[in-house]
Amino acid sequence: MIGRRALLVIILLVLISPLFGVVLADMVGYHEPLDVAAEKLGLKEASIEWTPFSDYSIPGLPSTIGYIIAGLIGVGILLGIGYLLVKVVAEKK
Predict the structure, then answer these.
(1) How many structural domains does the chain have?
(2) Using 50, 70 and 90 to split pLDDT, how confident is the model at 72?
């Protein structure tokens, strides 16, 4: 399904993602465009959390570690869905 080299590249990208999503974003003052638009419209953040990884973080862990864990979970979910789809298509042939 997915090659070993491709999987290593994906893991490497997840591991360095906090550099761009946390460290450099803080350095340049980056804010998500939807957050900026909501602030300009005077909207408040909903009090209901639909995900345990609010802002890609895990309470009690540094933001960079939470970012990596959330990335690995997301990649795992997508690879799992892809694997299931491949199996379903292969069974229909």
Answers:
(1) 1
(2) very high
